[in-house]
Amino acid sequence: MEAKTMSRDQEAGSEERGGREAVRPTAISRFGSERGSDVPDKTVGVITHDDPVFSCRGVDVFYADKQAIFNVDLDIGRHEVIAMIGPSGCGKSTFLRCLNRMNDTIEIARVSGKIELDGQDILGSNIDVVPLRARVGMVFQKPNPFPKSIYENVAYGPRIHGMARDKVELDEIVHMSLEKAGLLKEVKDRMDQPGTGLSGGQQQRLCIARAIAVSPEVILMARIEDLIDELRENYTICIVTHSMQQAARVSQRTAYFHLGYLVEVDETDRIFTNPSHKLTEDYITGRFG
To answer: How many CA atoms lie within 13 A of 125 on its CB side?
Structure first.
């Protein structure tokens, strides 16, 4: 990997896209520790997209009196795969959970700013999170199948959302979802067996089938799956990962978070071969994180 290097004087003096941006004064992270003063005044790179499914502006997240996310601006493009990277505790998973309001389940969490999905602000008090979470599905890092049969795990969402008029249509949705998740061949003869009895990898694919059964626009993933190449044709995919190799392989754009700030976002090839900010460079080259 050939990483971009600049002198300290060049970085401090550059206000253009390729150099280090002006810096914020020292602040306190959500863990109560002091962060360095090298986070840029604004995100480096290109935060906008020509066809955004999500448009986020000025997003802040607090856990009680501790701020976890600071003023994040980011567009997420339709049918793109965007990887969110950064060291543990940087805020990437917290930001991911904002996109379908999973932070609402945390009593002390508070989110402000604007997050628009197809032009509608999902942070509004009039938003019903149940259909929102159908449109923006989530696959967690640890598989969490329901304590139901394999069939019922996948059928549950389409049933409660009224997506099937009869058993024939429901069967079709279940089988198609399992096929897209690469699981149908392995379970087609034991659909009535518990989903919790599957292997770990199979449980993860079952959770993917459950997510896509309700025809989401966006899938949020807390880990990278081998199926992303197939899924990207039909869905926008946002992934959180610590694997630089996998992020470079599957994503078109990459966003680097550091202590709650979105430091840099750009095309993945550029991020991994010629990053514009030294914090990004230091992380992807293994100097910290």
So the answer is: 0
Q: Are residues 136 and 126 in the same domain?
A: yes
Instruction: Tell me the average pLDDT across 39-56.
Output: 95
Rounded distance, CA 40 to CA 67, Å?
Answer: 17
Helix (H) or strand (E) holding 138: strand 136-139
Question: Higher model confidence: residue 224 or residue 153?
Answer: 153
Q: How far lies 282's CA from each of 5, 125, 142, 166, 258, in Å?
A: 10, 40, 29, 55, 11
Residue range of the domain that includes 85 = 25-141+222-289
8 Å CB contact between 224 and 243: yes
Q: Are 202 and 183 in contact (CB under 8 A)?
A: yes
88 plus 226 within the same structural domain = yes
| Residue-level pLDDT at 32 | 38
How far apart, in whole angstroms, are the C-alpha atoms of residue 251 and residue 82?
Answer: 5
Number of domains in the chain: 2
Residues 127 and 34 grouped into a single domain: yes
